Amino acid sequence: MKDLADLPTTLQQLNTQRPIKSKRNRWNVAISDFARLTHNPIRAIVEGLNIEPNPNKPLIALSIGDPTTFGNLKPSPETIDAIRQAIEDGTGNGYAPANGHLEAREAVARYVQHQGPVTPNDVILCSGCSSSLDLCISVLGGPGKNILIPKPGFSIYRTLAEGFGIECRTYDLLPERNWEADLVQLEQLIDEQTCALVVTNPGNPCGSVFPRAHLEAIVDIAERHFVPIIADEIYEHFVFPGHEFHAVSSLSGRVPVLSCGGLTKRFLVPGWRMGWIIVHDREGAFAEVRRGLANLSVRILGSNTLVQRALPAILDNTPNDFFDDLVATLHRHAEMAYKAIKQIRGLNPIMPGGAMYMMVGIDVEHFPEFETDLSFVEALVHEQSVFCLPGQCFEYPNYFRLVLTVPETMIVEAVKRLEEFCEQHYKLDNDILLQQQNGLLNQMTLL
Predict the structure, then answer these.
(1) 8 Å CB contact between 134 and 160
(2) Which secondary structure element, helix H or strand E, spans residue 200, and what is its range?
(3) Beta bridge partners of 258
(4) Taking every annotated instance into account, which residue ranges of this chain make up the domain Aminotransferase class I/classII large (predicted)?
(5) pLDDT tens digits, residue range 141-173?
(6) Architecture of domain 41-71+321-434 in this structure
(7) CA-based nearest residue to 200, from 128, 134, 260, 116
(8) Which of 8, 68, 117, 423 would you call most buried, defined as having the most Cβ atoms within 10 angstroms of its Cβ?
(9) Which helix H or strand E contains 133, and what residues bound it?
């Protein structure tokens, strides 16, 4: 061993003993392709809007997909008691296995038996449903691959996929068919590089609930083309009277499905970040996928362990009355908004079948002063202090989405302001024709 006195003590001495390979002479800190390709379409659009509310009217934000924002919808006492007990027990302060504590995974397996036979080994706990989707997309896709996503659809699919260099191909949901998928178009989008089909049911932003026969038709396409399904079912059971939820995985014994769910919406605790993936393997098709998901799970060393410890009590003890009351409230809000907006000239609401949202079509030809749904929404905020997300956030122009979780009085006031706004700006066909003629005459005068 060398004596300490023999070790180099200056940078000059180090340089003379070991040639430096770096030729850098200035700061040039690059970012990864993953970071460069990742973006949030909703944020990009909203940040580009000129959102300045009317100072004489309090802002009503019908844009936030967080059911807890206004405090009118609260988690059940059983949910709060479960997390309190977990804190007092002190068993949730340390790390858990990357896929989650066994007791928590057992509880999830019991909770999702409607999806088909599920064991704890089929369950992976994640940091919210968005994390579940992230793992599913990243385990199946990569550069050169493509993934099928709905339009209109939740923007996070594109955010998660494009960072990996995955091409997003959108299949249309048809408003005239209560947002069912265009099956012909969907099938035509599939090729050898299609790595997954995303099915969102119940849906965001449409509040759509697919009938069993329609889901079976989608599953049949996936089976014929050997395309696995990522089922975003975070709104499972969030369905209004006259509709029924069917888990995609329950409809086929041959199509492999990764089902994504969590506590976020139904249990009204989105900030607790507890989601899961249910692996529905078929004839060993997901053998490699299981290993891949296990590898990806260790990147963040698992999800919130405190909530994991509370999970069995939350899932086992929350009474059905709590869920029934929540759905009844949202259904009442949906009917109230739908019936009122339907009477407003120039707007075409589509009654949702579940979830927390409603899409409203804009007869843009009767609002000629607004070039797009973006300018329509901007003006609505400026004049009436009502903010809804424009349809372009979901790749579906000439619509806007409103959230149904706000207090009832707020919905009533928002619809009243919306009616006032539309009455002020709505133009009859004769008025539009006259405007066009006047514009043409002005142009001829200038010439």
Answers:
(1) yes
(2) strand 194-200
(3) 230, 279
(4) 58-418
(5) 999 999 999 999 999 999 999 999 999 999 999
(6) Alpha-Beta Complex (3.90)
(7) 260
(8) 68
(9) helix 129-140
